[in-house]
Amino acid sequence: MAGHVVAIEDVKAGGRTDVVYEHPFIVRLCHWVNAVALFVLIGSGLQIFKAFPSFGAKIPQHNLINWPKSLALGGWLGGALQWHLTFMWIYIVSGVVYIGYQLISGNYKQVLFGRRDIPGVWPMVRHYFFFGPKPPVNQPYNPLQKHAYSSAIVLGALSVATGLAIWKPVQFSWLAWLMGGFHWARLWHFLIMWALIAFIFGHLVMVVIHGWNNFVSMLTGWKKDPEYHLE
Amino acid sequence: MDTPIKKTQFKRVTRRELLKLAPVAALGAVAIPSLQTPLLKAGLGFSDWASAKLFRTGHLAPTFDDSDLTPFEKFPINDYDVDDPEVELDNWTLTVSGAVQKPGDYNLDAIQRLPKIVRNTRHVCVEGWDVIGRFGGARLSDFLNMIGADTSARYVYVECADDYYESIDMATALHPQSMLCYEMYDRPLTREHGAPLRLTIPTKIGYKQAKYLTDLKVTNVLQKVGYWEDQGYSEFYGL
Questions:
Q1: pLDDT (tens digit, 9 = 90+) per residue, A1-13?
Q2: Residue A223 placed within a domain
Q3: Would the ipTM clear 0.85, i.e. be above it?
Q4: CATH number of the domain located at residue range(s) B61-231 in this protein
Q5: Residues 167-186 of A with CB under 8 A from B
Q6: How many domains is chain A built from?
């Protein structure tokens, strides 16, 4: 759980500010390592997709689509695979460490969407999208945030599972079978990438809206002027 | 609520917390080109090491019903160079060398006298497409046995009529589904698909399935790994 609220005193100016320790070190570390890894995986993944941008029959090489180089990473299929096969390990390790830490420390209660959060979802949706009143804030993450973060973690796990099914459709044949075979696993992997891109987009929009203090808290762990007060 | 702390103290605390994230900055170093090559080499090497560890000798690749087969005419022909390197089929032999008791030239009859296996398996290309094909031929392990190969050697290395070359780790070469293939869809291999002899190894990626074989060597040391591998693709690429 987030730490308790602490007051800091500005001796010169004489003001008082409330601060709260919101993000433990391991969570911040995993967040940023994961962000870099996901960025690399999406970029190189798009380059890999370029080698066969289809989910149907093989199409001739000269019909392949060409999009701006800046959208893809690795330059060519072999190069992109090197990036992908390198950063997938970093991605997996950061994900496993993150989930392990959350479970062991109990910090997951701050993030994990549960049954208690269900009633709070609609008021938040109304507030964000339909100019509804702002529901009272009494925890670091509101129910909609918890839902978004919990979903992102599930998507992350699915991206690894579908990726393994593509990389090792024989050794993990049961995993590929669960997804409908290699062919379908490739499609699922692609769709999950888009779901993660949608999450990242929404996440970045919210970061911009919530401003500097909120952003800094993912760097230093401390958030100034939290909207909520824990006892 | 605790007793208030001073702003200067707090700044020290937050700075220390921020500095803890220095490892992330190290990750940012991958933007420096000269650091990329060793990093990606290590990453690819680690993936190959993990692939070899994940490979199970007794685990079979899925096989499929005849109704699942990709029609023969839709089975893609992928070459790096020519569709037909104009192999003289009548005079063709497979030249065997390296750590074997019986080196020399083996003709197609010698290979076809070995027990024949036929199976429908998936062919997965590194580009991302996949097809299910019907392959017939001799077990590579039977052939290695016939030539008296030292199966403690690390690799089986092959060369092809079109200057393509490949290497297979011994564990995979001995896998029961690894095949010296001379038939596809119950007919002799066509020239485009590698006549008269090719590899089909359903536990490996497509570029390992070398066509138009001319030479086979059992060895511990590879001068070259494979046509695509030597340009930066995965060396093991087991499926």
A1: 456 677 777 767 7
A2: no
A3: yes
A4: 3.90.420.10
A5: 168-171, 173, 177, 182-183, 186
A6: 1
